[in-house]
């Protein structure tokens, strides 16, 4: 058993929660407290009734998530929002959420871990948000079709399917970048083009990115928003469990995206 205050304090420091700018709805850190003790940690990509019920079923009293409770901003505590909170309070489950601080973490971040899964070695940052870089980039010399096959294998293992923008046979990837989740945007395409990046690996992106990328000479590999963001919360839960000597579990709740 461990103290919730000790765990949340450690995570705040470890993830540099107070120092990383993020979107307002992220509300990084301890979002919901419990009675103060943690016997088991659960990890999930999203806070939802499914993941809360899974944490309760597995006997966890701390749920680590990437997407927390307040993405929609301030809203009345009724309907789905009430049901989530009711389940949390009924089972005395605390919630700790980490969005961009987890995305960009140098050891346990979604981006660096996805690069490792794909046997790519980052040499720099990518996807600027204010003063920080969320993603990673690097150099290689391999056929883009081979890289896309690696991404597809990863995605299948996490319940997702890969899509790519038009890809010519024999094309080689020499400069790549990764931004997990909703990583494809007009901004990331412009940033990639300015850095001579030829292949961009993301979770998902709007339709217009698949129009803009080929005109910029960039292939985008869309690996699935959910799939690309399972890595960080798993690693964070494993880290927390080892440091505080408590068991952990992962609540798999794919969104289809």
Topology:
Elements (H helix, E strand, L loop, with lengths): L1 E2 H12 L13 E4 L4 E2 L2 E6 L2 H9 L4 E6 L12 H11 L3 E4 L2 H4 L6 H8 L6 E6 L2 E12 H14 L5 E2 L7 E8 L6 H9 L4 E4 L4 H9 L3 E4 L2 H4 L1 H15 L3 E3 L7
Parallel strand pairs: 4-5, 4-13, 5-6, 10-11, 11-12
Antiparallel strand pairs: 1-3, 2-6, 7-8, 8-10, 9-12
Helix pairs in contact: 2-3, 5-10
State the main characteristics.
257 residues, five-stranded mixed β-sheet, 13 strands, single chain, six-stranded mixed β-sheet
Description:
With 257 residues, this protein is an alpha/beta fold. The protein has helices at residues 4-15, 49-57, 80-90, 100-103, 110-117, 144-157, 186-194, 207-215, 225-228, 230-244, and strands at 2-3, 29-32, 37-38, 41-46, 62-67, 94-97, 124-129, 132-143, 163-164, 172-179, 199-202, 219-222, 248-250. The strands form 3 sheets. A 6-stranded mixed sheet has the order 7-8-10-11-12-9, with helices on both faces. The longest helix has 15 residues, at 230-244. It starts with a strand and ends in a 7-residue tail after the last strand. The mean pLDDT is 96.
């Amino acid at each position: 058993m461990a103290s919730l205050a000790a765990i949340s304090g450690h995570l705040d420091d470890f993830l540099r929660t107070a120092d990383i700018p993020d979107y307002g709805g992220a509300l990084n850190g301890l979002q919901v407290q419990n009675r103060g003790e943690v016997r088991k940690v659960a990890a999930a990509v999203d806070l939802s009734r499914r993941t809360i019920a899974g944490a309760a079923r597995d006997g966890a009293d701390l749920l680590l998530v990437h997407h927390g409770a307040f993405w929609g901003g301030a809203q009345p505590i009724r309907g789905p929002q009430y049901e989530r909170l009711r389940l949390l309070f009924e089972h005395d489950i605390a919630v700790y959420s980490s969005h961009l601080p987890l995305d960009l973490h140098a050891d346990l971040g979604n981006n660096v871990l996805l690069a490792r899964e794909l046997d790519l070695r980052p040499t720099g940052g990518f996807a600027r948000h204010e003063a920080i870089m969320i993603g990673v980039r690097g150099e290689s010399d391999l056929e883009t079709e081979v890289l896309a096959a690696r991404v597809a294998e990863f995605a299948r293992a996490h319940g997702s399917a890969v899509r790519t923008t038009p890809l010519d046979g024999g094309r080689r990837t020499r400069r790549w970048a990764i931004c997990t989740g909703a990583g494809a945007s007009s901004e990331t395409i412009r940033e990639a083009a300015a850095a001579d990046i030829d292949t961009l690996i993301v979770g998902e992106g709007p339709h217009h990115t698949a129009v803009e990328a080929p005109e910029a000479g960039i292939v985008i590999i869309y690996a699935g928003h959910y799939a690309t963001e399972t890595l960080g919360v798993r690693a964070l839960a494993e880290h927390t469990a080892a440091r505080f000597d408590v068991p952990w579990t992962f609540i798999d709740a794919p969104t289809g995206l």
